[in-house]
Automatic annotation (TrEMBL):
Coiled coil segments of this chain: none
Domain of life, per lineage: Eukaryota
Name of the protein this chain belongs to: ATP synthase mitochondrial F1 complex assembly factor 1
A single cellular component GO annotation: mitochondrion
GO biological process: mitochondrial proton-transporting ATP synthase complex assembly
PANTHER family the record matches: ATP SYNTHASE MITOCHONDRIAL F1 COMPLEX ASSEMBLY FACTOR 1, CHAPERONE ATP11
Keyword Transit peptide tagged: yes
Taxonomic lineage of the native organism: Eukaryota, Metazoa, Chordata, Craniata, Vertebrata
Pfam families attached to this UniProt entry: ATP11 (PF06644)
Compartment annotation: Mitochondrion
Organism listed in the record: Haliaeetus albicilla (White-tailed sea-eagle)
Keywords on record: Mitochondrion, Transit peptide
Family: Belongs to the ATP11 family.
KW Iron (keyword) present: no
Cited InterPro entries: ATP11
Amino acid sequence: RSSPDVFESRMEKRNEVKKQPVGYSSQGEFIRCMEEKARPIFFAEGLGTKTSKGGFTKDKTLDSILNVEMVKEKSAEEIKQIWIQYFSAKDTVYAVIPAEKFDLIWKRAQKCPSFLYALPRKEGYEFFVGQWSGTELHFTSLINIQTQGETAPSQLVLYHYPELQKEKGIVLMTAEMDSKFLVVHEAQCLANQVQLFYATDRSETYKLVETFNHRSSEFKYMSVIAELEQSGLGRELRPGLVSDKS
C-alpha cells in the first residue's frame, strides 16, 4: 500500500523468473555482479580526487586509488599482482618499481629535477621536457615550453607512491595523459626513459642528466637520441615496430 510502484516492479520481476525456461542459469550475471562489488575492496579510484586544469587529477593520493590498510596484510608480490591486474584493463601506464631502484631515481631527481626526453615519430623525434614536482613527474613537449613558457600544460603525469616502500620494498606508479597528444605506448616510452636515464648504472648515461641540469650550454640533444637508440627503446616505437609490452 505504501509503495505500489515498488510492489508492481517486484511482481513483474517475479513473473519474468517464472517464464524462464527450465535449465536457465543467471550465473554469468551473478559473477559479473560479484566482480563489480569485489573490486572496490582493494581499489577506490575516483574517491576524494579533484580534477585540475587540463583534466589531470589534483592531489592524486594512493588512498584515492587503493585501500592501503587492506593491502598491508598482503605480501609485496601479492600487491604487485593486484596492481598489475587492475591497471592492465585500463588504457594507461603503470608499474611496480623495486624500492632500491626508486631510491636511486629519487636521489638523482633531487639533484637533477628536469631532463629532455626524445619520443620517436614517423619522421625524426619530438622532444619532451620532464620536470619533477614532489613524487610527480610532469611531461610537456619542448615546443609547448618554447611557445608558452612556464604556463605550458602537462601532457603526461607519472604518479609515484612510496607509501609501501619501507614495509613492502615496492613503489607503485600510475599515470594520466592528455590523449589529444599522446597514446599509451608513447607515454610508456617516456616512462621507460625515466628508468633509462635516472636508474642507469652507466655513468655516461646519467652524465647527460647532470649536464642538462647544471651545464646546459654543453648539452647535446643528439646524445639523448643516441642513448635511446642504443637501448632499443627508439626502435621499439618506430611505426610498424610498436611493442605490445606494458
